[in-house]
Amino acid sequence: MEREEHELGVRERAILALERRSFAGPGAKERAIREELGLSPVRYYQLLNALLDDERALVHDPVTVNRLRRVRDARRSQR
Fold first, then answer.
1. CA 66 centroid distance within chain
2. Between the CA atoms of 78, 22, 12 and 45, what dihedral angle is there, to the nearest 10 degrees?
3. pLDDT tens, residue by residue, 29-50
4. What is the pTM of this model?
5. What is the mean pLDDT of residues 5-23?
6. Rg of the chain over CA atoms, in angstroms?
7. How many angstroms separate the CA atoms of 66 and 5, rounded?
8. 8 near 57, Cβ under 8 Å?
9. DSSP assignments along 14-63, one per residue
10. Nearest residue to 67 via CA among 40, 48, 46, 43
11. E strands, 3-69, in order
12. Are 18 and 31 in contact (CB under 8 A)?
């Protein structure tokens, strides 16, 4: 296998980096998603959700991925 298949792309790493940050005020995160990543918030969250199931993401940033998985699982169990 080629090395690239084991690594996250630039966009995936940027999504995880954005998730590590905290945002002040309503709309700040959505604004950062649009301005920094050029994505709509809906598309961003679709990509993020898929990324949480990607083992490469877990290897790249286990703390963030595990935290987000716990949040996602808690929300699913509340439904």
1. 11
2. 40
3. 999 999 999 999 999 999 999 9
4. 0.86
5. 93
6. 13
7. 22
8. yes
9. HHHHHHHS---STTHHHHHIIIII---HHHHHHHHHHHHT-HHHHHH-HH
10. 48
11. none
12. no
